Amino acid sequence: MFNTNITAFIAIATSLSFLFFPSPPKSSYHSLYISSSLSDNASISHHLYTLTRRPHVAGSQANAEAAAYVLSTLTSYNIRSHTVSYGVSLTYPVSRSLTLKSSPQDPPTTFDLRQEIYNGDPYAGVADEVLPTFHAYAKPGSVAGPVVYANYGRVEDYMTLKEMGVNVSGAIVLARYGQIYRGDIVENAHEAGAVGVVVYTDRKDYGGGGGDAKWFPDDKWMPPSGVQVGSVYSGAGDPTTPGWPSTGACERLSDDEVEKREDIPMIPSLPVSAADGDEIMRSIGGLVANDDWQGSIDAPVYRVGPGPGIVNLSYAGKQVISTIQNVIGIIEGEEEPDRFVILGNHRDAWTFGAVDPNSGTAALLEVAQRLGKLQKRGWKPRRTIVFCNWDAEEYGLIGSTEWVEENRELLASRVIAYLNVDCGVSGAGFHASATPQLDELLKQATQQVQDPDNSSQTIYDSWVGSSNYSMIGRLGGGGSDYAAFVQHIGVPAADMFFGGGYPVYHSMYDDYIWMKKFGDPMFHRHVAVASIWGLVALRLADEEFLPFNYLSYAYELQKSAEDLEGEVSDKGISLVPLFKSIEELKKAATKINNQRKAIEENKGWGSMWKNDPWKVRELNDRLMTAERAFTDKDGLSGRPWYKHLIYAPSKHNDYGSKSFPGIDDAIEKAKNLNTAESWRFVQHEVWRVSRAVTHASLVLNGELT
Fold first, then answer.
1. pLDDT tens, position by position, 399-415
2. Does some domain include residue 583?
3. Active-site annotation, residues
């Protein structure tokens, strides 16, 4: 009896010990995480230097070596890590040629299609490892035709050409980078009747505006021979395994089946430099282009053609099933190990990748290093933190998509949020995009981190006070690895970076020297993005209640619905179901916020033996899964992989974020057809979104109807 009493007493004393000898609160570790004692700009600089010593395109030996470096670095921080491999369809250039005959009497000009090294270039010895300039997944073939200038290659640019009486059929389109995804530049040209596309880098946008502007290595601007390469594939994941992972001896679509899916371009294309684009432009006659279509101050007058210049374009590529490797690192949660907070960045680059993507990779390793230091000081996360270093993002978000498709059900049931950093740093100024329930959390994190360019204020102060301040963006575009998480399985997500568009994007000049001179000379912006990224992750992983606010989501939907009203008000389309569902979401969001407050107020001595942990868990599950309710199993009409009915890419610009993408697609189609049936389909899409919003409200309420 005595022994039994002693045992019982020890058990009770042990269970109560946390009240008398508590471990430090999680928030103290969060403050320590962002302190200067843990951050290390020297190690970030070293990581970036190491990762960018050679070009490391997906499927290459150099990229496999970069994966090994990430794996060994995570392991050295005592983070359990492994690689996950997939065999995916990638394309590489075999041959390219581009010739211009300016007029019948002139000899043809053959372009060498080479990016030039500069005097003193420390990477000259490995410059031949840079792939020849090309578009991944470009249509092989040889085409010729008179040149038509189509500005940025947008749908509205072709409408302007039509109004000017310019016939694009049978032509080679010359378009400039800068406004829409390159794959959509090619697709829009094909739809207009063009037989091929040449996409160039205009000095007005990337070369400092021309005139006396200098270029890299003397300034940040793209050199005249610089070329932006990249993918023209409009899908996500391996084109041969749409919707399922490329594992082992898996099922694959044939080339004909891939082509029928319309994610791969139907006409050949090539990217060229500003110098080559300028020469082609000088061969074009016809009407003078509009003022906003013109070039830099020392450029020729831009005309629209067609001709008299004739371009011959030829491209041949090879398609290879290549091995890619994602690197995964895991810090297991102590109390809720089955709930995941995921941090992701891709590793593969078209060339050296100092900005895109390895500024983000260096920041990822910095976050891991700091969390490793916290672990040594006694910190353990409440929930599991997962580090993901993706491969083959540049080809079409392939590494992340294959992993999400392989782990779909597990991720859909367990992931709290996905936090993405791609081009972590390209200059000054913080930017973020997110699903709206994360807005307040992002703002709060930026209020705790010092501005790397002004130590007298926080990032939030400079963010809100800047002349180009824009509120938090949305994740409807297909521009990075958040796409599979948000748009395919409905996981709350955020994406963040310093800078924005930068002139040497996807060229061989995106190297460590450019970063050291122009992007972030002291690597303080890298430290800052790692601070915000990690702090958001810590709060999601550690806070008892998930810091989500669905009222922000409801207000964002309200604003988007009001914007929609003007487009359909005279077409007999009723948005009443949508507005009604949004009101229900507001009520559900308010209710769950109040329930959370009530549980918090009841905590303490009086409720110690109550079932509060289960109440907290149940409430958090509702907050976690409400985002899933915005998805639909059938996906968007004609784009079934995209399941999210609130956020997905614009049909004519993969980078463009659209609210209510299904409604938007239906409106565009109805405007073209202008039939009663096409407008009825718009109403159907309104109902679909309304039902999804209603489902989200039911999840937040947590009660059966």
1. 999 999 999 999 999 99
2. yes
3. 393
